[in-house]
Amino acid sequence: MTFEELAARRQSCRNFDAEKPVETEKLEKIVNTARCAPSACNSQPYTLHVVSEKGLAADIAKCTQGMGMNKHCSAARAFIVIEEEGAGLLVKTSGRLKDQDFASVDIGILCAHILFEAEALGVSSCVIGWFDEKKIKQLLAIGEKKRVRLVIALGYAAEGDVLREKKRKPVAELAKFYR
Ligand SMILES: Cc1cc2nc3c(=O)[nH]c(=O)nc-3n(C[C@H](O)[C@H](O)[C@H](O)COP(=O)(O)O)c2cc1C
Fold first, then answer.
1. Which pLDDT tens digit goes with each residue over 97-124?
2. Residues 6 or more apart in contact with residue 82 via CB below 8 angstroms
3. 131: closest CA among 76, 77, 78, 60?
4. Pocket test for ligand 1, best of 127, 162, 166, 168 (most atoms within 8 A of CB)
5. Residue 113: which H helix or E strand, with range?
6. Protein residue with least CA distance to atom 21, ligand 1
7. pTM over cut 0.90
């Protein structure tokens, strides 16, 4: 499959098969591919918490469901919780000088690596930005002052889950070409 095809196939799964766990080898492969992600000054300012133990995964799911949100997470069989680590002095200083938040950019790129490796392995995913950070930190023994930036729900799509049409800005709106 070309990368173009992979990108067209990947979509946020909101219909996981609760009966199909994600194999540990696949989770390890996803993490290994995520290691290849580029980051500012190669600082890799993150730690991945990979949760597939059923009880803990159910607890993480609950943390994404405040105010009736993310009901689909109950059927996800694994989560990758991305904790931000403090960047080194060089990244911090250059970020400040250039008024850029490199760690957030790095985490976005990391997340993309996770999503696409999962998709390549036939594992569906959904990025979750709505979560109870405090509760997740308690569950995973993450320090109070640390930040959890993203949660990625993983699992196998339930049978009959269809590929949706991508609703995206047209190219002319998305990009300006300087030829
Ligand atoms: C930072 C971020 C946070 C998101 N948070 C949620 C979320 O809490 N719940 C959810 O169902 N989808 C969430 N999504 C998924 C987006 O809604 C989805 O990627 C977007 O609508 C495009 O659809 P697609 O992923 O199916 O192509 C999030 C995506 C990103 C990148």
1. 999 999 999 999 999 999 999 999 999 9
2. 46, 47, 48, 49, 107, 110, 111, 148, 149, 150, 151, 152
3. 60
4. 127
5. helix 102-120
6. 12
7. yes
Rg (C-alpha) for the chain, rounded Å, is 17
Gap from CA of 90 to ligand 1 centroid (Å): 32
Residue extents of the structural domains in the chain: 3-174
155: β partners: 124
Q: How sure is the predictor about 87, in pLDDT bands with cuts at 50, 70 and 90?
A: confident
54, 60 in Cβ contact below 8 A? no
CATH, domain range 3-174:
3.40.109.10
Long-range contacts of 158-167 (CB under 8 A, 24+ apart): 158/15, 158/16, 158/17, 158/75, 159/17, 161/13, 161/15, 161/124, 163/9, 163/11, 164/11, 166/8, 166/11
**72 C-alpha vs ligand 1 centroid, how far in Å?**
12
Ligand 1, residue 130: give the atom nearest the CA.
8
